[in-house]
Amino acid sequence: MDFVVSQILTGLSLSSILLLVALGLAIIYGVTGVINLAHGEFVMLGAYCAWLLQSQFGWSLLASLAVIFLLIAALGWLIEVAVIRHLYDRPLDTILATWGLGVMTQQIVRLTAGGELRYVQMPPSLSGSVNILGATDSAYRLFVLAVALGLFLLTWCIYRYTSFGLKLRAITQNRAIASSFGINSARAYRLTFAYGAGIAGLAGALISPLKSVSPEMGTTYVVDAFMVVVLGGVQSLVGTLASSAVLGETSGLLAYYSNDTIAKALVLIAIVIIIRFRPQGLFAPRVRA
Amino acid sequence: MSGKISRQILLYGVVCLAILAVPLLVDNAFLLNKYARYLIFGMLAIALSLSWGYAGILNLGQAMTFGLGSYCMAMFLKLKTVPIHTGSDGLPDFMVWNNVTELPWIWVPFQSMPFALLAGMLVPALFAALLGWFMFGGRVAGVYAAIITLATMVVVNLIIIDQQSYTGGFNGITDLAQFDILGLTFDAYSASTYYLVAVCLTVTLFVALAVSRSKTGLILQAVRDQEERVRFFGYDVALYKTFIFALSAAIAGLAGMLYTIVMEFASPTFLGVPLSLSIVIWVAVGGRQSLLGAMLGAMLVTGVQGALSETEAFLETWTLVMGGLFVLIVLLMPKGLAGAVEALLRRIPRGERKGNVRPAARQGSKSQPHLGGAL
């Protein structure tokens, strides 16, 4: 019983990280159709902000979260204005442009902060461990899980119950018609991009105490997050939630029997096979071309 | 039209002859080795141009097929060193360090040269065909396909690093024998290896040109521009796309084999994200819809990089500059340098006879940028 619970908890921890990183990617892709390959770099920047604020200004991680969200969101906003908005009718080129931006970001961080690994301290109040049904888990991991679920709920409520969310859904269905009804779709895209970037930054900050922080850390996250989006199906936030849970638990379990790499390979093979027969994802009604 | 084709073949031929003539002017083994590397990057660019520029399949994992080819060649050349760089039982040195007791089954067939040479192209091609069948059969296209190629490469890279006892892990496969065939030995630092690479490049370029001009090539370009319409005409779109994807992989595999000969080792970085990104940048700079443009783009970018980046610090800045340049090219010049040159060439004659060209004729010349220009 202990083993089962602790295995589930390990999987949930992986799932929460996946959900945090994938949420921003899913929102941006779902609304604007842009695959943001710089998403991993937003995550990385969030982690570096957390490190910088902690080591240079002595801020606690929890105190800096809001600032980090705003900073990375502002960066996302700028990037949308400068680059992305010119490319909405060339989806393949958005991949390239965001990839280029990602490389630049990585390189700027490497040149300014150095290429060595950085470490962020856990908030002292959350560094203990908690006993659940006989298995122990770090309080911080549970905190990350709670934040991930909270952010998901917040996003879902915005999408479902606010007038901005209604406009977003209208734009997603048909941008031209939504615009002709007076919805400012350019502004909606910009805000979506900024929000997605901000969440990525938050994800990076929250992950930073669990992993080491390095300029290259974003690459693996963006690939993992994209797997979540593919499996869950685009335009389905609930799908993103479900597939993070499935992927996190599966990876945790496979990694227990072999190792992380093999687990990753098996998950990828499964996803490639799944999209052959269900390209719209497991939880979505239709796919965006 | 036929005049245009022969002009194109002439242009391609002149460029290839110029490349083949380089060793007559350069008598420096070190430089020739460096140039041979640039030529191999040119082959990689041709491979990507075929799938991306002509069929619209943006392969962000092109380096994966390159690396697979490279490892095939490295395995063969490593086994040729038996028993010099090997342990007591004729096993490659890194296997001995990893307590492997007998040659793994994957390695056994690589004792034969014909098998290794075939595998260097067929393994990547079959791998790509399988992946392509899954993707294109499921009508996964555009950004989805691009990311899946990227993810696949990342995972293959991780596996190669992880399976240290079979692949040499992080260090790759080093201390290789020299490649020889039909009594000719190819020293990495010699004109003979340069010629080997240059001939392979020439053959590749003309095969790619022939494919792009064939009916298959035209159908693929139609798929790129209007996939749905081609499907309604009754063509098996997935089959065509899988074919070009596999062909591109085979070319990249060949380039990988040559790269192992030139570099004298194989490493997991050969199928890393940075190299893959570089390939995309070369092709974007040179012009994705021009085989020659893509090839020259690769040589230009790597040549400039090689000339400028003598110091490590500069290399770091160079990556930054490259990233910025890439974003600008994507934004402002989607057809790359080849597109710019073509637009320039088209403007000159039209300027001369501006007065008597009919609007209809002008439109005709305007509507064939994909098929028309000599590049």
Distance between the termini of chain A: 45 Å
The unreliable regions of chain A are none
Gyration radius of chain B (Cα, Å) is: 22 Å
pLDDT averaged residue by residue of chain A:
85
Approximate shape of chain A: globular
The strand order across the widest sheet of chain A is 1-2
The Rg value of chain A, from CA coordinates, equals 19 Å
Number of helices of chain A: 11
Described by the principal axes of the CA atoms, the overall outline of chain B is globular
For the sheet with most strands of chain A, the description reads: 2 strands, antiparallel
**Total number of helical segments of chain B?**
15
Explain how this protein is built.
- The complex is a heterodimer of chains A (289) and B (375).
- Chain A is mostly helical and 289 residues long.
- Chain A has a domain at 19-120 and 139-215.
- Chain A has helices spanning 2-32, 39-57, 61-82, 91-113, 139-161, 163-173, 175-180, 185-207, 217-232, 237-257, 260-277, and strands at 129-132, 135-138.
- A two-stranded antiparallel ribbon of chain A has the order 1-2.
- In chain A, a hairpin with a 2-residue loop joins strand 1 and strand 2 (135-138).
- In chain A, helix 1 packs across helix 9, helix 1 packs across helix 10 (237-257) and helix 3 (61-82) packs antiparallel against helix 8.
- Chain A is globular.
- By secondary structure, chain B is mainly α.
- Chain B has one domain (2-272).
- Helix content of chain B is 72%, strand content 2%.
- Chain B contains 15 helices and two strands.
- Chain B has a two-stranded antiparallel ribbon.
- In chain B, helix 1 packs antiparallel against helix 8 (191-213) and helix 3 (62-80) packs across helix 10.
- Chain B is globular.
- The chains are: A mainly alpha (289), B mainly alpha (375).
- Chains A and B meet through helix 4, helix 9 and helix 11 of A and helix 5, helix 6, helix 11 and helix 13 of B.
